[in-house]
């Protein structure tokens, strides 16, 4: 460092992080972040971005047998202080790494929140760490609550499980901003948000960085968002930084293959004209696979079930899905999309209306018919990490539906364990997971890899209908196209129908024959032209895409 120059806020030299004693998944990584900088760390799913965020935040379990740091090759410096050894300084006992000095916006927002505490109370606790008077605390709470657009009726009385994925994400962002941290580490902060909410959060982050002078490390697979928010870009692939450049100088530097692939995928996503898939006459004439009629639902008070403390979330919902049809569902965060999928999967009981599967009311089905229905309808949840057993390996998670089915059907022969594993390996191959992932646990996977495990598990029983709740939100643009292609292949080869909730309206336009819009508790069917008109605003213009170094 030149004499008289300001020291870096954080500096990492030759970081090596291991899952296996002989195989590092972060290799010889060096990183310097100056005070007030806005840096983006971009790369495909599984590149090691979130693992690096855990190291910077001091949350990586470095003393576990499966995860360790090379002590001789790691030095972290913060404003002149150097910390060495096998663990970062604890959050509380070292002021240079105190909770007030850094804030991490986690990728999995729902798992970050305490399920036993109201979300508003958790935000107040984050503000209380600064020892403010009660009047100032309430004022800051109201400002943050409004800044992240959590102004839904009774939202300050709800628990995390009553929040949508996007609302949980906004709450976690508010908690991070409450600390007035010098360094904000944002790990996929907009992945669970719709287009309008994404734009508001981007504007909020820019405003906070401008007024507070905070430093931002944005971790994302969205290279368009990275170029919008940040000045310097670090491209990560295979646990190493393969390219570093400034946004203003991107044309002068030869682009790495990873950057080219990310830009190409983003260009396809944003500029490719959508074409609606054709629905055959046979599919139009057949009996609906599933039909929802006059469905209604509201959250109830657990201790007073008959007391209507919450307004209806869903009112008079009507929709149909034909066999082998792909239907989309759009709507703002918190509009009830995930709740509707849980009602269709029989995970919640509606307050009114009925659901028919192949013309038969589910409420009147026998126990044996309901068991068969569980095989025919599979759901892919929005939050991958909370949907996976942390004590099971990937191969066991994917093969589990086969073991459960054979256990519940006395007339069916038991499938040998090896045969179930072979089926699981085939499913992994279909969703783009290499065989060496089979022995990993969920915490050893990136968010995109966890999502692909959920998709592989869902197709194991060859269902008639898959309810997919934001199946693309945790995937980079490269793998989004692969998953969409996979859905189209499964739709044709296995005759599977899809009901897909997605904020990526462009993908719905090219994948779905029809789409529904859910707003204010009611649903209506959209024509293709209306879907195009409702596409979210692009954060950068197509000209910026075309001018990028390809």
What would you say this structure looks like, in words?
By secondary structure, the chain is of the alpha/beta class. Helix content is 35%, strand content 21%. The chain contains 19 helices and 21 strands. The chain has helices spanning 49-57, 109-112, 119-128, 134-147, 165-177, 195-212, 223-229, 257-271, 281-285, 337-344, 367-376, 384-387, 394-408, 417-430, 447-458, 477-493, 505-511, 528-533, 542-547, and strands at 10-20, 23-33, 38-42, 68-69, 75-78, 81-83, 102-105, 183-187, 215-220, 232-237, 240-246, 290-297, 314-321, 326-330, 352-357, 360-361, 377-380, 465-469, 497-501, 514-519, 522-526. The strands form 4 sheets. Strands 7-8-9-3-10-11 form a 6-stranded mixed β-sheet, with helices on both faces. The protein has a 6-stranded mixed β-sheet with strand order 17-18-19-14-20-21, with helices on both faces. Strands 1, 2, 4, 5 and 6 form a 5-stranded antiparallel β-sheet that branches. The protein is globular. Residues 62-100 and 536-550 have low confidence and may be disordered.
SSE diagram, text form:
Blueprint lengths: L9 E11 L2 E11 L4 E5 L6 H9 L10 E2 L5 E4 L2 E3 L18 E4 L3 H4 L6 H10 L5 H14 L17 H13 L5 E5 L7 H18 L2 E6 L2 H7 L2 E6 L2 E7 L10 H15 L9 H5 L4 E8 L16 E8 L4 E5 L6 H8 L7 E6 L2 E2 L5 H10 E4 L3 H4 L6 H15 L8 H14 L16 H12 L6 E5 L7 H17 L3 E5 L3 H7 L2 E6 L2 E5 L1 H6 L8 H6 L3
Parallel strand pairs: 3-9, 3-10, 7-8, 8-9, 14-19, 14-20, 17-18, 18-19
Antiparallel strand pairs: 1-2, 1-4, 1-5, 5-6, 10-11, 12-13, 12-15, 15-16, 20-21
Helix pairs in contact: 3-4, 3-5, 13-14, 13-15, 14-15
Structural category is alpha/beta
Low-confidence stretches: 62-100, 536-550
Number of DSSP E strands:
21
Count of alpha/pi helices: 19
């Amino acid at each position: 460092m030149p004499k008289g120059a300001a020291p870096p806020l954080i500096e990492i030299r030759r970081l090596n992080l291991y899952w296996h004693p002989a195989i590092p998944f972060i290799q010889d990584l060096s990183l310097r972040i100056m005070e007030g900088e806005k840096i983006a760390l971009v790369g495909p799913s599984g590149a090691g971005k979130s693992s690096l965020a855990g190291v910077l935040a001091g949350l990586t379990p470095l003393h576990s047998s499966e995860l360790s740091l090379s002590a001789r090759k790691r030095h972290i410096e913060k404003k002149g202080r150097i910390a060495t050894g096998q663990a970062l300084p604890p959050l509380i006992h070292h002021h240079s790494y105190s909770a007030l000095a850094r804030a991490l916006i986690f990728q999995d927002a729902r798992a970050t929140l305490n399920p036993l505490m109201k979300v508003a109370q958790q935000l107040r606790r984050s503000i209380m760490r600064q020892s403010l008077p009660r009047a100032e605390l309430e004022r800051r709470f109201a400002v943050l609550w409004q800044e992240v657009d959590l102004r839904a009726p009774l939202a300050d009385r709800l628990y995390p499980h009553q929040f949508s994925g996007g609302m949980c994400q906004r709450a976690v962002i508010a908690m991070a901003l409450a600390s007035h941290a010098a360094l904000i580490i944002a790990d996929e902060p907009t992945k669970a948000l719709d287009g309008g909410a994404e734009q508001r959060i981007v504007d909020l982050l820019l405003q906070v960085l401008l007024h507070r002078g905070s430093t931002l490390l944005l971790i994302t697979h969205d290279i368009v968002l990275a170029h919008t928010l940040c000045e310097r870009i670090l491209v990560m692939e295979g646990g190493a930084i393969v390219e570093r450049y400034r946004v203003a100088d991107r044309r002068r530097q030869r682009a790495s293959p990873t950057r080219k692939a990310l830009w190409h995928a983003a260009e396809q996503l944003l500029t490719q004209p959508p074409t609606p898939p054709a629905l055959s006459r046979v599919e139009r004439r057949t009996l609906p696979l599933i039909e929802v009629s006059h469905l209604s639902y509201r959250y109830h008070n657990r201790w007073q079930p008959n007391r209507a403390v919450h307004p209806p979330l869903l009112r008079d919902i009507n929709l149909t899905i034909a066999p082998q049809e792909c239907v989309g569902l759009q709507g703002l965060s918190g509009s009830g999309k995930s709740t509707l999928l849980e009602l269709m999967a029989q995970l919640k009981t509606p307050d009114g209306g009925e659901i028919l599967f192949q013309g038969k009311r589910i409420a009147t089905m026998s126990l044996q018919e309901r068991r068969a229905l569980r095989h025919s309808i599979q759901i892919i949840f929005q939050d991958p990490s909370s949907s996976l057993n942390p004590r099971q390996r990937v191969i066991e998670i994917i093969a589990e539906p086969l073991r459960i089915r054979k256990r519940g059907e006395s007339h069916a022969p038991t499938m040998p364990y090896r045969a179930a594993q072979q089926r699981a390996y085939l499913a992994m191959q279909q969703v783009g997971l290499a065989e060496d992932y089979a022995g990993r646990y969920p915490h050893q996977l990136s968010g995109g890899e966890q999502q692909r495990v959920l998709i592989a598990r869902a197709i194991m029983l060859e269902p008639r209908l898959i309810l997919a709740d934001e199946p693309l939100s945790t995937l980079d643009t490269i793998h989004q196209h692969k998953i969409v292609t996979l859905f189209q292949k499964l739709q044709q080869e296995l005759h599977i129908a899809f009901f897909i909730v997605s904020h990526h309206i462009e993908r719905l336009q090219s994948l779905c024959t029809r789409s529904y819009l859910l707003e204010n508790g009611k649903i209506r069917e959209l024509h293709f032209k209306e879907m195009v008109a409702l596409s979210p605003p692009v954060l950068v213009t197509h000209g910026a895409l075309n001018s990028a170094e390809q």
